[in-house]
Amino acid sequence: MPATDQIVGRLKAIGRALEMRALTVAQHASERAMILDALLPAAPVVVANPAAPPTEMMAAADAVRRIEYLRDGGLVSGEEYMRERKAIEVAMTPPAPEPPPMVEEKPAAPAAPVAAAPAAKGAAMAKGSAAVHLASYRSRQQAERGWQQIQKAHQAILGKLQSDIVEVNLGAGKGTYYRLKAGPLASKDAAADICRQLKQRRQYCEPAAEG
Q1: pTM for the predicted model, two decimal places
Q2: What angle do CA 40, 44, 46 make, to 5 degrees?
Q3: What is the sign of the dihedral through the CA atoms of 70, 71, 76 and 82?
Q4: In this predicted model, what pLDDT tens digit does every residue of 138-147 receive, in sequence order?
């Protein structure tokens, strides 16, 4: 894997070559797409866990300098830079104080559907129902941690979906992976819609089935 400076230098070099007409537009676009796809593949097989957001001012400043470097090198767009910087600012914003606990004047009556909830949950996770494949890991523990991070990052989309970790042996030379899936979903169309939203957030996602 070449160093960051080498990658940036090559991108600048092919840009100058295009300006000098030493490369055609098609040749420049082809090589640039190859470099960027190697760095950020459109459909990665394994997705690394998202980095934890900074919790200290120095770490936040380092994160901002990093994305500024990527923007200046042409590796991320201005829109991507602003989105990442906003996320860093949000992470550094102190949480709002929790409201005082509410005191009920009289005990609430127990709801009848509550007792049936565990059975409904087990039925909803039946094998073969529609789901989404979010990532693959080398161990079940990594998959469990990955689910916590992905669910937290995309709570608005994943909602109350449940995780389903499936062990898959890919044979000699590849070994065993643990596929992280989320479901259940009403249909394959619902799974495709969730994947469309997650891919817009640069989260790997493919429609799949439970189990």
Answers
A1: 0.41
A2: 120
A3: positive
A4: 899 999 999 9
